[in-house]
Amino acid sequence: MKSQQGGSITCPLCLACGPAHYAVDRDRSYLHCGHCSLVFVTSDQHLSCEEEKAIYEQHQNSPDDQDYRRFLSRLTVPLLDRIKPQSHGLDFGCGPGPTLSVMMAEQAHHMALYDIYYANDPLVLQTQYDFITSTEVVEHLANPRHELDSLWALIRPGGYLGLMTKLVKDQQSFSTWHYKNDLTHICFFSVATFKYLAEAWGADIEFIGSDVIILYK
Question: What is the pTM assigned to this prediction?
């Protein structure tokens, strides 16, 4: 989605007009939506698909990496406490070394994978799931409202959407925040942003630790 429509800038999450200047660094400028609190960069500052994938190719994640497993367990552990045995799940944005799906399958859950670059199977986006996970993905979404609404529609009533992403705290700390320096990160969510989404969906929401968000349908 183009961030600019008819010359005016709109928020890519709630489509509100007139976001305010939030921060600027040597690479990009950042806007803040006063309606949903999303911080984002405009589409003219997004990388090309080729540039984006080249950065992802540098990732070395795999199920054999115990540190990566511990990182993902911040989501898998609370999610496993909530879902029923042998549930069906989708790992959205699984990357080149799917690991969370392996961890959930080890606990007897049935997993499907989707990734625009590494597991681009549209058929998995045409079925319903008991839970969907998406770790370190939402900050990469160019059209977050469309993409997140689409995921939410795939979750059965009583199901869960489990997300991991670093959260914006305030404008002052954002200026020195390492997370924004990754040029593939184009949308930055806060507690207020996820509360906006939960209200829009009629969902219950939990924040676990500093970067785990679980929404219940």
Answer: 0.94
